[in-house]
Amino acid sequence: MSTWSWVRRVGAAVAAGCVLASPVGGSAATASVAAVPSTPWAWGDNGFGQLGDGSTIQRNAPVPVGGLSGVTTIAGGGYHSLAVKSDGTVWAWGLNLYGELGNGTTTNSSTPVPVSGLTGVTAIAAGFYHSLAVKSDSTVWAWGLNQNGQLGNGTTTSSSIPVPVSGLSGAIAVASGQYHSLALKSDGTVWAWGYNGFGQLGNGITGGSSSTPVQVSGLSGATGIAGGQDHSLALKSDGTAWAWGYNFWGQLGNGTTTNSSTVVQVSGLGGVTAIAGGLAHSLAVKSDGTVWAWGYNIYGQLGNGTTTSSSTPVQVSGLSGVAAIAGGGQHSLALKSDGTVRAWGRNIAGQLGTGTPGGISSTPVAVIGLSGVTAIAGGAAHSLALSSPPSCPAAGATPATERASSTNQYTLSNSDGAAWQEMDAARLRVYCTPTAIQSVLVTANADLWTANAGFNQDLGIFVSDNGSTDQLLAWKESGGFAGTFSPNAAYVQTRYSMTNGHAYVFKLKWKTNKPATGVTIVAAAGNGPVFSPTSLVAETFPTGAVPNFAVSSTQYTLASSDGVTWQNIDAAHLSTTLSPTATATAVLGGNVDLWTANAGFNQDIGIFVSDNAGPDSLVAWKESGGFAGTFSPNAAFVEGTYAMTASHTYVFTLKWKTNKPASGATIVAAAGNGPVFSPTGLVAESIAAGANPYTAVSTNQYALPNSDGVTWRTIDSALNVTVAPGAGTNSIIDANADLWTANAGYNQDIGIFVSDNGGLDVLLAWKESGGFAGTFSPNAAFSQTTYQMTAAHTYVFKLKWKTNKNAPGATIFAAAGHPPTFSPTRLTVDLMN
Predict the structure, then answer these.
(1) Where among 511, 540, 569 does a domain terminate?
(2) Which of 21, 275, 323, 516 has the highest count of CB atoms within 10 angstroms of its CB?
(3) Nearest residue to 491 via CA among 756, 757, 304, 765
(4) 571-628 tens-digit pLDDT
(5) Whole-Å CA distances, 766 to 160, 211, 493, 524, 753
(6) pTM, whole model, 2 decimals?
(7) Number of independent structural domains in the chain
């Protein structure tokens, strides 16, 4: 369920004509990122462990395949899966009834096992119950079911270890049908073996089988191959597509439903760069990035908005910029050049990856939680993707951003309160290898909570430089001491300077604030299977463009605040100055752990500005709840923007107070046991004046009564942000609101949505703010995500909210303070390069 946004482009990394998958296999060509491991992901049917996550539980959204990294190629079979690692070894998982895993047994495996005795492998394919591999010496090897001679070794004896395909050399690619196999040779000829009941071997004969390879008649200049259940496909160097075999549903694409034992040209299709076969349908990508499909369509697998089969190619609706395709049994997949995946067709087992199983989709839908994808593959009712961890892009004239994200829920039991544990090494790391000296702003965002009162949750950002020991950069403490089941939408931010040529790995770790034997803390909220996202974002800046960052690891106290007067937290260490030479906008962020030992009082944090030594003016503020909870820090974040004039000097400062007179009470900033406490920070970034960042802000207070816990409601249409970029762009989207309730037992959810060109609102990210155990205790909630926009599209970003469960008679609130001006609720869209 992980997602990494702002991915590397796939582009030419997928070679023209490479078969990315077939339902019953096909080879998967991938683009790997130098020095960064690639991880396979899987979703859908898992009855035999074919997702490789150590279970046999159906997954409706992507999960990482367990224990595999450095993968270069993937393939999906009927009920098993294959992967090639960068060392040339092959790994397999899932059904092993006939030895299709190739490990010398017939025992199923829900985790990857090495295929016996195979090294130097460059390509793979998976059939329904057999597997194929090409070695670097251009020989082909096969294993699994062989009743129709599909292993190609001159016998019909199945094998649980690889056997060489007889008399075949010069192979560069393989593909598989249900019970037949295909190989492409370097001379452009195609060879086939196995079952031939419908002419799928293409040698002019229908019926019987061949246990050794035969040449496909009349085909030369082939650059790619693919297999369907009982039909075969080839791509020629002139960009035309050809097919042969079973054609009951028109899957040969020649305008008929007549089987053919010799190759026929797919009608009206030119400029083809890649092909794939489904169970009884076929797919092609054209050089303009469009996708075309033909054949069986009862489940919408042709993607043209109908369920009518077609014997000629039809265009898949609303899909452009596609780099690769894959066919599943009765579903289809497409990899876009931005590294995201689309799926359509049957979804009975969650194979479309939308998070919800069932039904069909006759048009493409986004696979959730995936980005940075470099290859895809389809199985009978499961899907696979290969993704590289997010890597910081080089910043050009404007900053660039990378995001690692997961919608899994995490638990940590029996923390000793001292040792930091990595939350998820597969999903929640960001890799940076700068080519110049650069600064990076690293942020972490997570819903943290516990079912065990008395323990807080610590969230930390770490970095490893060139493989060195992990170094703690920044951390925050989330309060569970006085409140159970009350998530804190925690946020932690830090700045870090990187040296060119070094390899940096940023990681997310956590622990409790003290020894917690028998106690469990939790990250991510919601009812599942898709939880509130946990994310790690790295925003790299151009060389010389360093955001100001004032930071202190001292703990501060404020006693007997009158609830009105804002006091400097630390004017010497928590203020920063900007002196723009041209009109500019300051993007500001204050981050602090706020708490109290005296219940009944909340803590207010504010960003102030002085222009040319003038009086301090409040820019933005948030209220952190201590009313119902003591010793429970809120990892508060307040965001603001401020318009600056050329040649003026602006001093930004962090100040604080209580929410009401607090004689005899003390509030505290920074958590921990000392002498180094959780850092309090103030970031000030200067960007050229203009529409960016796009911001909507309101100082109204909002109420939502009787939420059903399911339906997201718009907070205020005045908080919508509209962006129509003139060029493709990345963006960081931030939502910042004080959320609270007067009715204990209910939490408040805040979500960021987007509508693209007037389409349906799509949820991008959300956070849950805890009111379960605390009333009148605002959570300075912050939710952050990244989003890629396309030129000439109009995007409307919206803030919505709801309760975490049905709440009849209860009311939740956004914004704190006293009328007429409340703490600002804000939605910001910051465009990157």
Answers:
(1) 540
(2) 21
(3) 765
(4) 999 999 999 999 999 999 999 988 887 777 888 999 999 999 999 999 998 887 654 5
(5) 47, 56, 18, 10, 9
(6) 0.68
(7) 4
